[in-house]
Amino acid sequence: MTVAAILKHKGYDVASVRPGISIAEVAHLLAGRRIGAVVVQDGTGHLLGILSERDIVAAIAAHGARTLDMAAEDLMTRSVQTATLRTSVEEAMHIMTAGRFRHLPVLNHGVLTGIVSIGDIVKARMSQQDHEVDSLKAYVAGVG
């Protein structure tokens, strides 16, 4: 199974913000959409970074309430790891586990086309395993 299959089911909507938006506005967006991260893009749609709940919490611990007045570009991760539509679920899981992050933007020919979370990956992997178990059960029942 690939990331494309996850996005086909989940959808291609990606919450994105501009680099100058305040962290207070980002927090409002995250809470309102019940998501854990947003991508940061410039006016042309170029991926500049990613900003997660964890980034905001770490900044609050370091800077206190003034974090809310900071801009997304101040806290975002600039070196963003990405996947493509052809990235396998297993490979995406490895990338996210090795990097210790929960959100992976998906590019199609260099253009942001979606984002998958660790929850999406786990759900897909469980579905894959359920299908394999059902196939094995059907095979054994048919042989017996």
What would you say this structure looks like, in words?
This protein is an alpha/beta fold and 144 residues long. It has a single domain, classed as CBS-domain (Roll). It is built from six helices and six strands, in the order αβαββααβαββα. The chain has helices at residues 3-10, 23-33, 53-63, 72-75, 89-99, 118-143, and strands spanning 16-17, 37-41, 47-52, 83-84, 103-108, 111-117. The strands form two sheets. It has a three-stranded mixed β-sheet with strand order 1-2-3. A three-stranded mixed β-sheet has the order 4-5-6. Helix 5 (89-99) links the parallel strand 4 (83-84) and strand 5 (103-108). Helix 5 crosses helix 6. The model has no long low-confidence stretch (mean pLDDT 93).
Features:
144 residues; alpha/beta; CBS-domain; 3-stranded mixed sheet; 6 helices
In which range does the helix fraction lie?
A: 40-55%
Please write the string of helix (H) and strand (E) elements.
HEHEEHHEHEEH
Name the CATH architecture.
Roll
- Proportion of strand residues: 15-25%
CATH class division: Alpha Beta
Q: Rg from C-alpha positions?
A: 18 Å
Q: What's the number of extended β-strand segments?
A: 6
- Provide a count of the helices: 6
CATH topology label: CBS-domain
Helix/strand structural class? alpha/beta
Low-confidence stretches: none
Termini separation: 30 Å
Overall pLDDT metric = 93
Query: What is the approximate shape?
Result: elongated
- Give a short account of the largest sheet: 3 strands, mixed
- What is the number of independent domains? 1
